[in-house]
Design brief:
Strand content: under 5%
Structural class: mainly alpha
Largest sheet: none
Radius of gyration: 21 Å
Number of domains: 2
Number of helices: 7
Number of strands: 0
Distance between the termini: 25 Å
Shape: elongated
Length: 157
């Protein structure tokens, strides 16, 4: 299969792709992202390096309970560039978002959503119920983050 898929360029899949002087970039983006998803390119790049030297990159978390913004875009490229480079050098690089440093913002958001302001109110409702609310507030923007990271062409699990 030709990479990226030639459908955005015009010729059939088995014919060489001609360079189009005015490509439609949104179509190219959709085709490349669809190819990566269908081919499972990211996970295949990791699986192909099983047993290779590992390169570890501790990726900080996206903001736990907020929408992505321009600042995430800029740092996201660096967080993708170095692991991708090491992968191209033959190293096995697992890339997983970390969520461990956003406990307080998640708790504050849960308190705001519940309309509570005191620790005693958390204790009255029960720690398990409060944690469930904090967890749901963190997961509220999962789809937006997945879309943002995917459109950025960033590979992370």
């Amino acid at each position: 299969m030709t990479y990226p898929r030639p459908s955005a360029f015009g010729p059939a899949a088995d014919a060489p792709a001609a360079v189009v002087p005015s490509p439609r970039f949104p179509d190219l983006e959709r085709d490349v992202l669809a190819f990566w998803e269908q081919d499972d390119t990211f996970r295949a790049s990791i699986a192909q390096r099983e047993g290779a030297d590992e390169w570890v990159f501790y990726d900080g978390p996206p903001f736990a309970n907020g929408l992505p913004h321009y600042g995430h875009l800029l740092t996201g490229y660096a967080k993708d560039l170095f692991p991708r480079f090491q992968t191209m050098r033959g190293k096995k690089v697992d890339r997983v978002f970390g969520w461990d440093t956003h406990g307080l913002p998640a708790e504050l958001e849960a308190m705001k959503q519940l309309g509570i302001t005191e620790k005693s109110e958390i204790e009255d409702m029960g720690i398990a119920a409060f944690n469930a609310k904090a967890r749901s507030s963190v997961l509220e923007y999962t789809q937006e983050w997945e879309n943002y990271v995917t459109r950025q062409a960033r590979w992370v699990d």
